[in-house]
Each structure stands twice: as structure tokens, then as C-alpha cells.
Amino acid sequence: MKPKLKNYLIIGGISVVTVAGAFLYWQFLKIKDYVIKFKRISVNKIAVNNLDFNIYLYLENKSNIKYTINKQEYSVYINDVFVSKIVNYAPNEIKAKSVNDIGVNVVVNPSKVIDKLKGVGMDFLLRPEKVKVKIDINLKVSVSIFKLNIPYVFESTLKELLSKKNE
Fold first, then answer.
1. How far apart are the C-alpha atoms of 163 and 31, rounded to whole Å?
2. What are 155-163's contacts with CB under 8 Å, separation 24+?
3. Which are the contacts of 150, defined by CB distance < 8 A and separation ≥ 6?
4. For 34, which of 46, 99, 107, 116 is 20 to 30 Å away at the CA?
5. Strands 67-78 and 132-143
6. CATH number of the domain located at residue range(s) 34-166 in this protein
7. Between β-strands 92-94 and 81-88, what pairing exists: parallel, antiparallel or unpaired?
8. DSSP alpha helices (H): ranges in the chain?
């Protein structure tokens, strides 16, 4: 092979790898360009020592890459008091350029939550607009062999969460 042709092939190969790497990096940045919105809550069971419900969220993936959420971690705060950490290991496939539903099942002991939230109990029934809910969300995502975290903070009031507009 002639030295000039060899040099052109090397330069061309480096250029292709560089452009492909830049495109993949741009797509990974786009994966972090997402929108998460609260969809609804559905209650499965209410008992003195067991509250079982599902939380549903919308996740809009603005990138051209399909990825999988392997793990979801939710740290729940009510009126700035840590209530519970919820972890979901069920994988969720997120399609490219689409809005996807994410669900997580939550099972808590209401009496333990009430112990942590002394003084807020009556607000749940009488003034739900005064009950502030904050959820720190961390989604563990994998794309091919790459892994990354998608953080998000959700804040609302109990009244907003229970209103009809979220259904």
C-alpha cells in the first residue's frame, strides 16, 4: 500500500471515529434532556399496618436512543421530613423520541409514617394543600454497555396529587 493512501485511510478512520464519538456524546447529553411528570396514584390496599399503592409517572425521552431504567430510587419527604426510601428493580424500557409510563409499587407502614409526621396528621384530612410532598428521584439507566444516573426532584402538595387533573 502506498504511504499516501495509508495516511489518508488513517486520517479518514480517525475522522469517522471522532464524528461517531461526538454524535454518541451528543445523544448521551440528550438522554439527560427529559421531562418527568406525575401521572397518578392508585391505591391497592389500605390497612392499619399496610398501605399499598402505585405511583405512575410520565417520562418523555427527547433523545434518539432507546434505553432501559434498571433501578429506580425514590427518597420521599413530607413537609421536609424524610418518610421513606423506595427502590424498584423492575426494568422499564424507554423508547426513543416518545413519552413512556414508569410505575413503582410502594408498600409502607402508615403507623411508622405517622410517628415520623407528628402534628401533620390532621392536615392530611383537613388541609391537604398544606402537606408538601417532595420526592428525590434517581433513575439508574443503561444504554448498551454504558450506565448513567438521571436525577430529578418532584415537588407538589397532597391536594394537587389527589386532584382530578392528574388522572
1. 31
2. 156/38, 156/132, 157/128, 157/129, 157/130, 157/131, 157/132, 157/133, 158/123, 158/124, 158/128, 158/129, 158/131, 158/133, 159/128, 159/129, 159/131, 160/129, 161/38, 161/41, 161/133, 162/41, 162/128
3. 31, 32, 34, 69, 138, 139, 141
4. 107
5. antiparallel
6. 2.60.40.10
7. unpaired
8. 3-31, 110-116, 121-126, 158-162
C-alpha cell at 101: 409510563
pLDDT, tens digit, 9 for 90 and up, residues 83-94 = 888 888 889 899
Q: What is the pLDDT of residues 37-67, one digit of tens each?
A: 878 888 888 887 888 888 888 888 888 888 8
Sign of the alpha-carbon torsion through 91, 93, 94, 98: negative
Q: Identify the residue whose cell numbers are 392528574.
A: 166
CA atoms within 13 A on the CB side of 45: 11
Which three-class secondary structure state does DSSP give residue 44? strand
The secondary structure of residue 131, as a DSSP letter, is: -
